[in-house]
From TrEMBL, chain A:
This is Tripartite-type tricarboxylate transporter, receptor component TctC. Coiled coil: none annotated. It comes from Pelagibacterium luteolum. InterPro entries: BUG, Bug_dom1. Pfam families: TctC. Keywords: Receptor, Signal. Residues 1-28 form the signal peptide. The keyword Nucleus does not apply.
From TrEMBL, chain B:
Residues 23-443 form the DUF112 domain. Signal peptide: none annotated. The chain crosses the membrane at residues 22-48, 111-135, 141-161, 173-190, 196-224, 326-347, 359-386, 393-412, 418-448, 469-491. It holds the Pfam family TctA. This is TctA family transporter.
């Protein structure tokens, strides 16, 4: 009897799978029929934009339709996010966005749409690599000496790409975990901030843009905000190696679609990206952009976004950021 | 400077820049740059944003050469519409309207176009030479300008430029303040607080400079000319080749402004966050200030077009210095240039010049080729552009209006900016009726937010200690200059007043 019920269950299950697969193929045959737009909610020329263009190139070849990139910058990504959330949920408008839109902005300002409900994740594509760097005129040769100083004194300033930017919140998170203090100096973007850190006008910066400066010896890198050391800077420890746990490693970039996009299309795109990431050459082209390729299919990604948002939300509630 | 090294670099650069494909992309870049420069509203940022996706499929050096060509080509073309139509091609050319358009009304439009091409070439050349000889030194020097120095410079700029327009000083100052007020719109950098955005998300990054400049100068000019359609008669002799020939007086008057404009432009180009528009405005202001006959300004003084045009071209070239030598883009357009490298896996940073010498020197040498091509392109085109004036306004202006719309939209791909340009057009027309000058408003809008940003940052870094402004040598010097200027102003207006009084007494 046992075997029979198993057989029945098995039969049912396999027929469901077959039906699901048929449904899948039916959609796969019809999607994508025409050009797919990937909206990047930042101005052209940045890293997210480069990732989007690389991904668009890969998806165009893989799925046989034209994937194009459209930039809709402004309001830290909220203009593009609002736009995509109001677009037709047919899989022909997608968005490549970064973590700050989902896990930070809703907690620091009143947003017109809730990105967590207005969009659905398609796949995680990359992790940002960030480094804590100090001006070389400062006496701290390693992270321990630096920690010892900021735990005792609040005379150092750190630069960030703005209030509510990922580097700002990451730095505050870091400071609260290690029990240190620094003065926040916000800038309109990472580049002007980097400029003043290079000049020694501001002392510290945790960002992606400092990496080439550390490689060139213009800044001193102390600790990597990430799970792995950087290929070109193998001597700098990660947070965990430095004994600092509980600090979110860095930020991520992922592909999203409007909330009601059919799950078949989301799954098809997610699978296509998974296949792209099996190709070493494609992974290398993503690595070259200065990010760590990291794939997560849509369901896993959804979970990590939610826990990320909750963690940042709880932390931001403890900060004194004006609404 | 190692001369042998420089010669080697030049030949390396030439061998890169002179390949058939790079020559082709350089030509395409400068041609497009000139055209989008001439077309009001579509500037370098819009054009480069539109062409950026193509660079994905190009060799990185070719891509950069083409984008750079658009960037400095725009400044050559940008003054054309300012001079002929009183509608600036780009915000950096808005100030050229003040004297360029009167020149063309006096039948000297051809002269103005020819001379601004020369000014552009000289300004550009100064910038390129500086970049070839001293790029790393200048980049490091520019780093010594921190927020205290920027703040001092912005104060000096505002004081020096407060009398940029003719007529009532009070109206001019009021417009500067109004410009500063418009500049405060958007999210406050230091608190994240939304200021004057009225809940409009598109305003959270502030008012779009292109929309403001094109509305106040371009759309307002079009509205104002509706009433004078068909009443215009053009002297056909002003559109011939002979009419391009400057007089020896023109050339003599231009030498000083071009030299000062090039120097000022080169300086501001290297400071991230300022750039060609600030340089052009201040170059004009300085010429007017040091002129023995400031009353000629605004009525077709050739100094008033030569200084800003040499300044914005010099700034165009030197803004590549921090971008290439440090890997830090100073503006949105420069970020796009580096984006064209990032997309090919080249990480911009301080090692770019040493690790990619053929890219750096190829780009620098392409500047020479591009600037020469621009002169060759622009001089014959002057006749054609001037002939544009023969097109009836009722055909020309709707087209111009459409291009302004396209240009404003393309900066952010946001339809809201079209509403903004319309609103500022109406405001600009109203200001004309009330004889309120538009140039000081634009100046306040450009300098005001920079002044606030840097003042507050200087205070944050110094933890509220006001003494930093006089403790740091560069900012102390600049502030001392500002005080001297104010005292000199007060004294000279007192003298004028005393003289007038004496005359009145005598009479």
């Amino acid at each position: 009897m046992k075997s029979l019920s198993f057989q029945v269950a098995g039969l049912c299950a396999s027929s469901f799978v077959a039906m699901a697969m048929m449904a899948g193929t039916a959609v796969a045959q019809s999607y994508p029929e025409t050009t797919v737009r990937i909206v990047v909610p930042y101005p052209a020329g940045g890293t997210a934009d480069a990732v989007a263009r690389t991904l668009a190139g890969g998806l165009s070849t893989k799925l046989g339709a034209n994937f194009i990139v459209e930039n809709q910058g402004g309001a830290s990504g909220m203009i593009g996010t609002t736009y995509v959330s109001q677009a037709a949920a047919d899989g022909y408008t997608l968005m490549l966005g970064a973590n700050n839109i989902f896990s930070i902005l809703p907690h620091v300002s009143e947003t017109q749409v809730d990105p967590l409900t207005a969009l659905v994740p398609v796949a995680k594509v990359a992790d940002s690599q960030r480094l804590l760097a100090v001006h070389p005129s400062l006496p701290y040769e390693d992270i321990d000496a630096f920690l010892a100083h900021i735990q005792e004194s609040d005379d150092l300033n750190y630069a960030s790409s703005g209030i509510g930017s990922t580097p700002h919140i990451l730095t505050e998170f870091f400071l609260s975990e290690v029990g240190g203090e620094m003065n926040h100096i916000p800038y309109p973007g990472a580049n002007p901030a980097l400029n003043d850190v290079l000049a020694g006008y501001v002392d510290v910066m945790i960002d992606t843009v400092v990496i080439p400066q550390v490689e060139a010896g213009a800044l001193r890198g102390l600790v990597v905000f990430g799970s792995e050391r950087l290929a070109n800077l193998p001597d700098i420890p990660t947070l965990e190696e430095a004994g600092l746990t509980g600090i979110p490693a860095s930020g991520w970039t992922g592909l999203f679609a409007p909330a009601d996009t059919p799950v078949e299309i989301v799954a098809q795109l997610s699978d296509a990206i998974a296949e792209l990431y099996e190709d070493e050459a494609f992974r290398a082209s993503v690595t070259n952009l200065g990010v760590a390729p990291d794939f997560q299919e849509y369901e896993t990604f959804q979970q990590s976004i939610l826990s990320d948002s909750q963690m940042f939300g709880e932390f931001i509630a403890t900060l004194d950021i004006e609404e | 400077m190692d001369i042998g090294n420089l010669a080697g670099n030049i030949s390396l650069g030439l061998s890169t820049a002179l390949t058939a494909s790079n020559l082709f992309y350089c030509f395409i870049g400068v041609l497009l740059g000139t055209v989008v420069g001439v077309i009001p509203g579509i500037g370098a940022l819009a054009a480069i944003s539109m062409l950026f996706p193509i660079t994905f499929h190009l060799d990185p050096t070719s891509a950069l050469i083409m984008l750079a060509g658009i960037w400095y080509g725009t400044s050559y073309g940008g003054s054309t519409a300012s001079i002929l139509l009183n509608i600036p091609g780009t915000p950096a050319n808005a100030i050229v309207c003040l004297d360029g358009f009167p020149m063309s009304q006096q039948g000297r439009g051809g002269v103005a176009l020819f001379m601004t091409t020369a000014a552009s070439f000289i300004g550009g050349s100064v910038g390129i030479i500086l970049m070839m000889l001293f790029a790393p030194v200048i980049a490091n020097y520019a780093l010594s300008f921190a927020s205290t120095e920027y703040f001092a410079l912005m104060i000096l700029g505002l004081v020096a430029a407060s009398t940029i327009s003719d007529g009532s000083t009070l109206k001019g100052l009021a417009m500067v303040v109004f410009g500063i007020a418009i500049g405060t719109v958007g999210m406050d950098l230091y608190t994240g607080q939304a200021r004057f955005t009225f809940g409009v998300l598109a305003l959270s990054d502030g008012v779009n400079l292109v929309a403001l400049a094109m509305g106040l100068f371009g759309v307002a000019e079009i509205i104002a000319s509706i009433r004078k359609v068909d009443t215009r008669h053009l002297d056909r002799s002003t559109v011939t080749f002979r009419a391009m020939k400057p007089t020896s007086d023109d050339v003599q008057r231009s030498a000083g402004p071009v030299a000062r404009g090039s120097a000022l432009g080169s300086f501001f180009g290297t400071l991230p966050g300022t750039g060609p528009a600030v340089a052009a405005f201040l170059a004009y202001a300085i010429e007017k200030r040091i002129s023995k006959t400031p009353e000629r300004f605004g009525k077709g003084a050739i100094e008033g077009i030569m200084a800003p045009e040499s300044a914005n071209n010099a700034a165009d070239q030197t803004s590549f210095i921090p971008t290439m030598a440090l890997g830090i883009p100073g503006s949105a357009t420069m970020a796009l240039m580096l984006g064209a490298l990032i997309i090919h896996g080249i990480t911009p940073g301080p090692q770019l010049m040493t690790q990619q010498p053929s890219l750096f020197w190829g780009l620098v040498m392409s500047f020479w080729i591009g600037n020469l091509l621009l002169v060759v392109l622009n001089v014959p085109l002057i006749g054609l552009w001037v002939r544009l004036l023969l097109v009836p306004y009722h055909l020309l202006y709707p087209a111009v209006l459409m291009f302004i719309g396209i240009g404003v939209y393309t900066v952010n791909n946001n339809p809201f900016d079209i509403w903004m340009v319309t609103l500022f057009g109406a405001l600009g027309y109203l200001m004309r009726l009330l004889k309120l000058p538009a140039a000081p408003l634009l100046l306040g809008f450009v300098l005001g937010p920079l002044m606030e940003e840097h003042f507050r940052r200087a205070m944050l870094v110094a933890r509220g200690d006001m003494m930093v402004f006089i403790e740091r040598p560069i900012s102390a010097t600049v502030l001392a200059l500002t005080v001297a200027l104010i005292v000199w102003n007060a004294l000279s207006s007192y003298k004028r007043w005393a003289k007038r009084k004496a005359l009145a007494m005598a009479g």
